[in-house]
Amino acid sequence: MSALSNTDIERELIKGNILIYPFNRENIKGASYNFTVGQFAYKIPDTPGGEHEKCYDSIAKEITIPSKSTVIVATDESIWVSPQIAGTYHSKVSLVSKGLGHIGTTLDPTFLGTSFIALHNLSSQPIKLKRAHTFVSVTFYYLRSKATSRYQEVHDNTPARRGMFENMARNDEGDLEWLREDFRKEKEPLERKLKESETYIKLRSSYSRWSQNLRLLLPYLIIIFLIGVGSYLSTSSLSQRFTFFTDKAVPALLGALFAIVVADIRRKS
Q: Whole-structure pTM over 0.70, yes or no?
């Protein structure tokens, strides 16, 4: 397995091998993606059979994790990955330094849905997390071969083990409605939401512009290469080769720059 860089993550988002919504390009880091706090947060009961206590304050828009307690927190994002991509979830140092325990769980190939993260407050004080703030990082990996269709059929995380978490929120219609949003349980609505989002459109546009410029430059790069070969073969003197190359290559470089400028003007008009 090899980890995906920020460039890899962006490329796989554009290719449709990773789907994330809500999507924020600023949350893509050098080799990970930072997920944010959702509104679903429930404390694990202190005694077996006890009730799960809601920990999200909708007015303050924050989650409170009591001292020496474990709270299940949902990411605001829903995610899907292809059969050839997996991942691992990791703690943020800034939160661990406040007393939260380390996060260690996996993102399996073809996973679909919201991620539910167990946060353990090991400190003697309650810890608060603001809604929509980042709290867990996911590192993605390419698999050497695709996960088999048999594995996908028995995948126990699809769709995000919703039944277990819906049971926690069974007395809260708002949380149940949030959990049952179509893009949190179906791939097509998730993909549609992502592709319609402004941040994704900007990401795709930036890559489209780069590829368009590359196509414009390619003929000129070929010409410059041929000029370089010609200058090498035409004379044995190094200075004469350099003079020949610059005389012929400069017009080609100017032509390439002019083509890019014209293309930019047309895109903006």
A: yes
